[in-house]
Amino acid sequence: MQTHILGYPRIGSKRELKKACEQYWSGKIVLEELLTVGRNICNQNWNIQKEAGIDFIPCNDFSYYDQVLDMSLIVGAIPTRYHEVALKRNNSELDLYFAMARGYQKDGLDITAMEMTKWFDTNYHYIVPEFYKNQQFKLTSSKIFNEFAGAKQAGINAKPVIIGLVSYLLLGKEKEEGFDKLDLAKNILPVYIEILSKLQEQGAEWIQFDEPFLSLDITEKAKETYTAVYSELRKQFPSLKFIVATYFDGLKDNLSLAVSLPVHVLHIDLVRNPEQLEEVINSIPESLSLSLGLVDGRNIWKNDYENSLAFINKTVEKLGSERVLIAPSCSLLHSPCDLDFETSLNPEIKDWLAFAKQKVKEVVNLKELASGTENQDIINDFEENKKAVLSRKTSSLIHNNIVKQRAEAVTEEDSQRKNSFQIRREEQQKALQLPLFPTTTIGSFPQTAEVRSWRAKFKKGELTAEQYDTLLKEETQRTIRWQEEIGIDVLVHGEFERNDMVEYFGEQLEGFVFTKNGWVQSYGSRCVKPPIIFGDVSRPAPMTVYWSQYAQSQTNQWVKGMLTGPVTILQWSFVRDDQPRSETCKQIALAIRDEVVDLEKAGIRIIQIDEPAIREGLPLRKTEWQNYLKWAVEAFRISASGVDDATQIHTHMCYSEFNDIIKNIADMDADVITIECSRSQMELLNAFADFKYPNEIGPGVYDIHSPRVPSKEEMIELLKKAQDVIPAHQLWVNPDCGLKTRHWEETEKALIAMVAAAKEAAVEYSI
């Protein structure tokens, strides 16, 4: 029996990579310093796994921005608009790479970034490959070979991790009509063969191909492509050992395909789909070994050793121990790095948790326990594990009967606004008096180093509550004044008091606990610190009323109240796994409903309930969508339906493909929805147009995830594209997302251009 890890967090245990990337982008460090940070993180990760006793340690799971973008660079899938960047004399391969991710606006060039979207049903974002008819590919980057050599230098014959060819193509987007991206398999396969040939020359013995699409609904053509690709790879490399890793769901109708592939090991996710084990072990041929994904790679709860050992023993009984591997369910990319850094957590709750470093040990312990170890330390670990699992099941910290009873008493009426949107719209027009193409932002404004330093000083006791409050009020007032000056119609207070859009609320809700260093990567250098929902959720007191009311008192214009929606709080937290997610979501919805009602009482007439995670929460299999959408939409409506018709409810959604769920988005019945559209050049609006979406829409007119500042003319063109498909009276004008991560200089330029674009579009429409 052997062990392996599918991937390890690459941000560094103290976010060293984030800091180094941002310093490099701002010109504060040189390339070699950034590369040194990357090499150090790789070595630390390899040593953690080596010292724990992992048999197959991965390499090429590290990335400076995104693993899919890495693959695009490796195979030469570089859109032509970046070719001039590559030709710039002082630019490195990494500069080209970052330009693809972030856009490029210097040296006389102004190039937009590649599109970004969610990695399956996680909160991680990847850079979407761009594909064209008859596209040619070539080996362009040496990253994968450098990392393998680095591991070897560290005394590790690592297992390179590569996004499988079919999954890579399926992750991309056809940028012109008249072809199927899977048709490109024959063009890209020679590059994969070249990659494997070079790795074999370097001494690689095992290769891990990540093929998550084997856990999704795929076409017959995709299935045929899988068979053809792996048959050719096996023919070319008879001595290399291939692991095909599937995760995030079960194989289900793709089982016969997966077990027929000519590979050595098939990995399955038994956390997300434990039911599949029986069918898999009864279908697997003798030539194939099975990797059991038993340690949860996406959550932070300790593994239940007794439960996992039952799965291992069942598999060993059928296949024999020599054909069994133990692993996490997926890459540990989605886990925080190290629980040892958490010195302030409630000890009882901390005893229920495991982060990436601890999960590595769990994998090794499971192997040893299943092998009948006599190692007393591991036997002691087993006894401690039993106590922790029992403690969590019986703890008085978890259950609140008042919360449970309120959730059980929810009726259909609780999820309905008083009247239809058409009636509400008339009331809102009378009350709000907004112009054609009203302008707003998504909520947050730049959190400068100075603002962050105030928060840090306050937490350390270096600022009193009164001093901190005064500083935040001054920043809020300045931001209100500036929005008034440039002519924004619906203002926001800027959210300077908030750390993270989920963490801020979780800190004020019962049933949540927080870490100090539990960071995970969201995209690029953006890291988030998800709250941990360990028990029943309730709101003991108002959370945002104070700051919303203060901001509204500073202006005669409308100020939006800003909230995070129940589904997003659920999705972007580490969620308890001892009750259905739908129950936890309903509890959160009731807490947000209380806040919405209090905001209205405080005079806030426009309230935004952000739900960027609605789409990402969809199960990967369409047969399971409707159940999820039913409770997710209901949770949003519960949170939004306690107010009068004249109170306007907004929601915001991040990068998503809406076509398949547009009816459900309409069922949410938000008065205004803002969506990220600029990177797709308004393509995402087509779903709303085809559906004849009845409510109001704010398609983002500039990309806030890139530092480039678009021109007024560029935004006007996007607004014209929007008007081609959506009636003008339904359109709002706004950025793609919140501005928290941007700098003030670029924010000011972009918003001034945005307001000018909206006013010009309104004049043109009136003429």
Structure overview:
By secondary structure, the protein is α/β, with parallel strands linked by helices. It is built from 28 helices and 23 strands. The strands form seven sheets. The chain has an eight-stranded parallel β-sheet. Strands 19-20-21-22-23 form a five-stranded parallel β-sheet. A two-stranded antiparallel sheet has the order 3-4. A hairpin with a 2-residue loop joins strand 3 (104-106) and strand 4. It is globular and about 75 Å long. The relative contact order is 0.09.
What are the segments in which pLDDT stays under 50 over at least 5 consecutive residues? none
Question: Roughly how many Å is the radius of gyration?
Answer: 26 Å
Largest sheet: 8 strands, parallel
Number of strands: 23
Which structural class is indicated by helix and strand composition?
Answer: alpha/beta
Shape: globular
Number of contiguous helices:
28
Q: State which percent range the strand residues make up.
A: 5-15%
Going across the biggest sheet, name each strand in turn: 1-14-13-12-11-10-8-2
Helix content: 40-55%
| End-to-end C-alpha gap | 75 Å
Q: What do the pLDDT scores average to?
A: 94
Key features of this structure:
single chain; 767 residues; alpha/beta; 8-stranded parallel beta sheet; 5-stranded parallel beta sheet; 28 helices; globular
Summarize the structure.
By secondary structure, the chain is of the alpha/beta class. The chain contains 28 helices and 23 strands. Strands 1-14-13-12-11-10-8-2 form an eight-stranded parallel β-sheet. The protein has a five-stranded parallel β-sheet with strand order 19-20-21-22-23.
